[in-house]
Amino acid sequence: MRIWKRALAVLLALFCLISVLCACGNERQEQKVIGTCAGFDVLYEELRYLTLTYKDIFEDTYGEGIWDNPETAEKYRAELEETVFRLILNNYAALRACQHYMGEEETKKAMKDQDIRASVDAQIQEVKQSYGSKGAFKDAMKENHLTEHFWRFTLTVAQLENELYYVLTDDLGLIEKDHEAFYNWLRDGNSVYVQHIFVENNKGEDKEANRQKAEQIRDTLISSADPAALVLTLANDSNTDEDYYNVDPYYIVRDVYTEEVEEAAFSLSGIGSVSDVVEVETGFYVLVQVADEEPTLLSKTPSLLYSYQWAKLEAIIEGFKSEIQLELNEYGKSIDLLAIR
Questions:
Q1: Is the pLDDT reported for residue 9 higher than 50?
Q2: Fold for domain 180-292?
Q3: Rounded CA separation 49/45 (Å)
Q4: Stated pTM of the model
Q5: How far, in Å, CA of 31 to CA of 23, rounded?
Q6: Where are the domain boundaries for CATH 3.10.50.40 in the chain?
Q7: What are the beta bridge partners of residue 192?
């Protein structure tokens, strides 16, 4: 699940609190339709949330203040627009998948289902209570560029994804659910037991310097007589002040992890083999294959199957992105992402 719902009076009250976040200071702007996608209205609040969220992420990546300088803002405009308009398809691709496998009418009914609404209400209320005060909750909403209406919509979509999960596994059998069959598939070359080293690209750090750290650790492992034993020792060494090492070995399962990490894992040639440095968006991995025993994989099969099932579901939803597009109306076309505050 992601996020959750409540009554109209509460929504209106919250919009009043958050109105300072709107570009024009008018809470009604958040509810303005900017276009349609997969037959659903897309509201300004969703565009604003993604835009401000990724403006923050880009500042972490490219440097603070890039949006305050007209020259650097223009430099990153195209990347920001491509990112926002690609990600805005996520919720609607999920809804389109629900329409395909559950039916359009059934999907519409599910979005208004009282049980789903009650579940969303309960989770939102739980989160509100966890902040202790309306002021703290308001600050959290501001910090995350959220309106409660959009929060509820996103959680409702997540609930429908959960319904789709059961349709694809239990009803249609399009995603594997048999534990024994999945275990045999894992044993048939579709899982690798590894320990990893991960050098994270934290804010303000030199990316190339982190790459060199990963390369140096890899060289140390390769030069060891027993890389598998060394990486496990390093991971459990309480004297190390680095947090590069995962606490426990784990299984990388085919079709679950990112393509780069998966390719590195399945290129390992046996116990003690060391992968090349693998660059991902957040840093650098080095994988080492370590020994496992049959009971270990057997005990972890249920959780591995669950992860595999959801990875398959997300891949199916991702496939529906090619079928949909955001059709902006005149108002949507007039919005400058750089001007959104």
A1: no
A2: Chitinase A; domain 3 (3.10.50)
A3: 6
A4: 0.82
A5: 13
A6: 180-292
A7: 252
